[in-house]
Design brief:
Blueprint (H helix, E strand, L loop, with lengths): L6 H70 L5 H14 L3 E8 L2 E3 L2 E3 L3 E6 L2 E6 L11 H9 L3 E2 L3 E3 L5 E12 L6 E11 L1 H8 L8 E5 L5 E3 L11 H7 L3 H11 L4 E6 L6 E9 L4 E8 H52 L15 H47 L13 E8 L7 E7 L4 E9 L3 H19 L5 H13 L8 E9 L4 E7 L5 E3 L5 E3 L18 E5 L5 E5 L1 H4 L10 H12 L5 H16 L8 E8 L6
Antiparallel strand pairs: 1-4, 1-9, 2-3, 4-5, 6-8, 7-8, 8-9, 10-11, 10-14, 12-13, 13-14, 15-24, 16-17, 17-18, 18-19, 19-22, 20-21, 20-23, 23-24
Helix pairs in contact: 1-2, 1-7, 5-6, 7-8, 8-9, 9-10, 12-13
Amino acid sequence: MFSRLRIAPRLALLTILGSTLVLGAITASCYLFGSRRIQKETEEKAISLAVGTANRIETVQRGVEKVVRASASRIEDGERSPERVRLILARAVRENPEIFGAAFAYAPESTSGGARRAAPSVYRSGERLAFKDLGAGRYRYDVWDWYTLPRDLERPVWSEPYFDEGLGGALMVAYSVPVFGGSGGGRKCIGVVTCEVTLDWLTELLHSIRFADTGYAFLVSRTGTYICHPRKDFVVRETLFSAAEANHRPELRAVARRMISGESGYIPLRNLVSREPSRMAFAPVPSTGWSVSIIVTDAELLAPVVSLSRSVALVGIAGFALLLLVTLLISRSITRPLRELDAATGILAKGDLDAPLPAIRGNDEVAHLSRSFSHMRTELKRSMEELRATTAAKQKIESELEIARSIQMSLVPRTFPAFPDRPEFDLYAELHPARAIGGDFYDFFMLDRHRICLAIGDVSDKGIPAALFMAVVRTFLKAIWRDEESPAATLRRLNDELALDNDSTMFVTLLCAVVDLRDGSMQYACGGHNLPFLISPDGRVQRMKRLKGVPVGAMEEMLFEEGAERLRPGDVFFLYTDGATEAMNAKGELFGDGRLETELRRCAGTSGMKELARGIREAVESFADGAEQSDDLTLVAFRYMGPPRF
């Protein structure tokens, strides 16, 4: 539809489209750069806030740890009586408002009545301190984690957060330190000092953090349990891992592993409160293994950039409307000469090469175009005349090539069976030029009643020169056979005749063989040609013995070695040119001697030589799979059936 518009509206639309793309690119760049800058600043601010919050929590917890370890040290130094222990614990609770209660649990002593337990404790009760012995009732503190973990690990331990039902469900956490007695090999745990700390101050601290309007903070323990979170149903009852499983969020599970491993980071994540794409910064609290996280939504982070981009887009649309009007006016004035030229060229297109062209003044591109059309019209007239002459000449050449092809094909025997009255042999041959005219040839003729001559050759060139040279070779070959009795002598004389005054330096690879039909004896000579194959009735395929001999016609006074073989009844003598072995497929792979030998073995059991030759040709064509070939393909198959029976 756009291509059907005239140049003026098309030019205007293209201008607007180009301007839109430019403005869009600018707006997108501003958005990208702005969003990256804001995200970078947000990342730094969020990480800084998370680390700062973690440090504040760390400071409080370090203070609690210091108080508890000091109390444990005093008890370990000898102040172990219940009265002294109560005084030490009361002082720790009184002087540290973040500590709700403290206790020292003695290691249970074995008695005849069982294990005796004692655990004096101090805790806040309103504005006063209250005292209690945790070992006096049924409470077995020696099986709870706050006692067994520091005793067995022999180091201080922070407990997991828990709700204290006795305090109305207050969120608490305990810090426990083992106390040892004795020395050297006799050193053993004599009890555990523990302090309970309410986490109300921690909840207020995290709720007071404001990072944008949608931002919030949360805290998880070293096992991933929520300690503080905007959703109160998460606290203590859920973990990062259970939330990831419930919401099908494998990426949240990966983040949880990083957090409980003590890592810091800043990552994109869809939060569990608003379900919107967000950014999360997290940092560890080293003393407890907890992790602080701060989350803010992407929408709020990018709101200023989106607002600026929207304003730029509105201004751009108004500018585009004005630009479209101006562009239409300018483009119409520019394209008026083009419309006139279009009308004139329409007449030219209908075949009226004498139609006048508009006279366009000036030296701009449109004036140049008008003069170019005038020059094109003149050249078109001349080219049409030349085309007529060239077409006629081409048709004449094609006709002559077809005649030359017919003449060339008539030079080789094409009637099969060639000697229907001779039962001593079965003979078949095929010639397939790669071009209209080729340089391959084959021939066979009876030297006398008992001997047949077989010949196959491949001229070094292609086209008409090769065809002419092939005709000369075939003529010489038949003429020389009248005076010579052996293939080697024939090739020697033929070579001298062809090499004489051979200014074109053409040559031919040639193989000649003479078979005596009385006993199957065969003499052959090779002038640089592909070695033929001998196929036994049992399917065995072997290549003929290599003989000395160079391509015929290359140099004078060359000698050719002669070989001898005896064909048994049923033996096949197979000759071919390199158009078979050098046939190439689309991948550049050659058919090769190995495939030819394999195909000969496969086709060895065929009934006649025609089927054998066609089977090989079809195998070569199937391998080439339509790829253009550069060499002619010639095949000659001769089967010796045995001596004549009179």
